[in-house]
Amino acid sequence: MPEQFSYLTELEESGSGVRSSSDEVRNLGSDGTPLLARYDLDTVRSAVTPAIIAERKPTLWRYHELLPVRDPAFIRGFGEGMTPLVELPRLGASLGVPRLKVKDESALPTGSFKARGAAVGVARAAELGITRLAMPTNGNAGAAWAAYCAQYGIEATVIMPVDAPAITRSECVMAGARVALIDGLISDAGRVVGELTRSGDIFDASTLKEPYRVEGKKTMGLELIEQLGWKVPDVIVYPTGGGVGLIGIYKAILELQKLGWIGAKLPRLVSVQAAGCDPIVQAFTSGASDVTPQTDTRTVAFGINVPKPLGGRAVLEAVRATEGTAIAVSDSDILNFIEKCASSEGMMFCPEGAATLVAVAELRGSDWIDAQDEVVVLNTGAGNKYPEAVAVDLPTVARDAGTDEVLAAFQ
Ligand SMILES: Cc1ncc(COP(=O)(O)O)c(C=O)c1O
What's the pTM? Predict the structure, then answer.
């Protein structure tokens, strides 16, 4: 009998807990809440061990038992996964957090962690026979889904704010997606996608309106825990827009606990938002169980400019269940930390990633983070996708091929 590849069983409505078949094309549950993939973890426990996983290729498919694609023939991709977990000793020392580390997602295909959700979401869409899909995006998700859809021959329609980072707009077009730029925010783009997909001819692949993107993002959590020797750190700090990454990391932790591969300790999950768009922070601070949508939001960290996150309730649950917190940071601090990290550690974070560093500085300042804590921040994308974010003063051009001036300045 061939080895089973995925142990996906059913989809569960995150609101009501009602379970249903996972082998049909689905969007939200009948209660209007996101559907979450469930697995036969008892059988996974006897089918695979961390030692077996350690022998596999360094891609996110090494966790295939805990991913939704049933037939390996549907796995293509670009070798995504197993991004480095890098120590930040100089920056950590300057912040009073010597055990600071970054899970650096910048080297993933299309330059952001969105490749994880796209690799798994598009593979599963292909397996379910989907040939046309549409999605709203702040840029990186569109770039990733357009690339994976091109690889699988699926038609992608991407609706994005005209202000999305220029490179991401070009990436979508280059990958052959049908692209519409709208004068509005991602929530406006989401409304357009809702209309476009209403008839059912085109699949709505919006964040959390399809069940499998979060499974791809879950692999961030699986990887970082494997990289720490199947131990959780004290604190995980995540830049939160729609919230899928944080929900995925929390789901990974709970599944690993049920498998018995990690102990009872939970890392404190920190949801970081920008001061110009902070619906989750506002809800967390006021004790609300769900977010109140915001309007006219803005931030340099474009990926986390999500005024109405559908996953807000689940993010709040994850943060509270882990005794974590939610914190908003300013754009000027984000920009300062991009430079601080580049000059002290040689890593140019994306603005969303740099927001996590600001949060670490502030939470250490208030003693919420202890000097002994092992802290992992997520750099969710490549800084060089945002050349316009940091205004750098370049030296003037040296005259006469420059020899005299360069020697005078640098000898
Ligand atoms: C670089 C980057 N970081 C973080 C986010 C937020 O992701 P999530 O939906 O998982 O909160 C995005 C979303 O566009 C992004 O592009």
Answer: 0.96
